[in-house]
Design brief:
single chain, 34% helix, 4-stranded antiparallel sheet
């Protein structure tokens, strides 16, 4: 599913990723941990093509992300769901309008898109708020909408960057349980977090980053 070979990324004189190598197999749930500044966000960005590594190779579904150009990256992202730290919702649009957007971009028919949107809104417990503008929702509700938008196209890979970072302890438990249900349905998940409770609750393979390097991987094979 994902293979990284000696990936490094630098910003000016700062090393964000330093010779990172590991793989994630289809159906795995991998938790990327480490303190702030360890390189977790940068690692996710190079996987979905928002950043280009300075060295090394990244294969996602056997495609070299670093060599993709132009319209090839959006096509690759159609197989992914991405949940970022900042919600990036359109506050003046309704819940329904926010979630359907990826399907509109992909040219999915209105009838099929509506069916998919209503299905994922029900799955995240937000079907009763489909006509509400996202700008008036609570942080927990907005995060549910972000997750719904990320999975509306039934991605085979879900990337999440600190998805509980803006939530209290109770809401964190709810969101993590939602990710666990998504994983149980067969979606491969790579979730970055510094929250130890999230790590324990997800109960997946843990890859720990420190200063841009992988310092431990409890799923590594010799």
């Amino acid at each position: 599913m994902i293979q990284l070979f000696h990936v490094s990324k630098f910003y000016d004189r700062c090393t964000a990723l330093d010779d990172v190598s590991f793989r994630i197999d289809k159906g795995e749930c991998v938790i990327l941990t480490g303190p702030s500044g360890a390189g977790k966000t940068t690692l996710l960005k190079v996987i979905f093509g928002a950043e280009i590594p300075d060295s090394g190779q990244i294969l996602v579904q056997n495609r070299n992300v670093a060599r993709l150009r132009g319209g090839a990256i959006p096509y690759l992202r159609r197989t992914m769901g991405i949940v970022l730290q900042n919600f990036q919702l359109l506050p003046r649009k309704t819940v329904y309008e926010n979630v359907i957007l990826p399907l509109v971009i992909q040219g999915v028919t209105r009838r099929l898109a509506r069916k998919q949107v209503l299905g994922v809104l029900k799955a995240v417990g937000m079907d009763h708020k489909q006509t509400i503008h996202t700008g008036v929702l609570s942080a927990g509700e907005q995060q549910r909408i972000c997750i719904a938008r990320a999975i509306v196209n039934s991605p085979i890979l879900l990337l999440a960057d600190e998805p509980t970072g803006n939530l209290d302890a109770e809401l964190t438990v709810e969101i993590v349980e939602l990710f666990k249900r998504i994983h149980a349905e067969g979606t491969t998940i790579l979730l970055a977090t510094h929250n130890q409770r999230v790590v324990e609750q997800m109960n997946g393979r843990v890859v720990h980053l420190q200063a841009g390097r992988v310092v431990s991987d409890d799923g590594a094979t010799s």
